[in-house]
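User: Can you help me understand a structure? I only have the sequence.
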Amino acid sequence: MSDIPIMSIEDVETACYLRMNALDQPGVLAEVSEVFAQHNISLEAVLQKEPAEGADKVHLVLLTKKVTESNINAAIAEVESFDEIEGSVARIRLEHLD
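Assistant: Let's start by predicting it. Here is the structure, written out as tokens:
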């Protein structure tokens, strides 16, 4: 066996695709973005479409730049605690093969 140490998952860096259901009201996207900034997470892209007719919630989709697992976990936990966010944040880790 090799003597190469195994990196803790908390230290692994990947970009992330995140999707969440949010109330369609002014300021929610700003609050979510502020949380990511506080956890040193840069956003590469943000998508928020119009809600379906009669709906009061929208899908927010965020793509992050590379971020440590510990930072993204902390940011997601904080965002999930908001009253304006319904349910859990869906996350897919993105690997860049460059």
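Now, to help you interpret it: The first strand starts at residue 13 and ends at 23. The first helix runs from residue 28 to 38. Let me know which part you'd like to focus on.
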